[in-house]
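Quarterly update from the structural biology core.
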Amino acid sequence: MSLSGKRILLIIGGGIAAYKALDLIRRLRERGAGVRVVMTSAAQEFITTLSAGALSADHVFTELFDRQDEHDVGHIRLSREADLLVVAPATADLMAKLANGHANDLASTVLIATDKPVLMAPAMNPRMWAHPATRRNRATLQKDGVIFVGPVRGEMAESNEAGEGRMAEPLEIVAAIDALLDVGPKPLSGRRIIVTSGPTHEPIDPVRYIANRSSGKQGHAIAAALARLGADVHLVSGPVG
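Predicted structure, tokenized:
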């Protein structure tokens, strides 16, 4: 599905997965979408507004009380002009703010002010994702209509950490956006499908293993196509570029 003419407001939270948001911007624009970006102060510790602005070809919004941005109540305008709000990475903090109605910065205020669909791609340490407070907030947000993609299992940025908490890959997020904005027929609606993709390592012994060099492109494309047809797709991916 082409996203030509669709307007996406991407809210980038603070976390190491913020670098994936830059690839997400690129992939959305390749499909014809217009992308505007809101960055939290924490996100700016990981990536720059210059990078996000260059890829989106638009101004990057960062401050609630910026005189230039708020002269026409910018946080309301941003939410009204978008077809969809995407939060990637969605941190535990952003989830908690929206679930509890807090609006103390631009990102959280835009989320509270919108009546458009919201898609969240969580990314956090597995222990944070498993915490009862995060589980409660996710349940509240789902009840309120927020759509979630991921997180997925895998290696964390922290040394020797693995588990459920990695942000979904940009292609999987794009597939979810396609599904949300596509009003066409969905013959696979109600079907749950697992797609495995990317390189694998099968240990022979503690030293040796058998591996393949799969790029994951075909598997990701299949997952995206299935999602566009209405399937609930869970993508299990090895490390891909």
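The mean pLDDT is 86.
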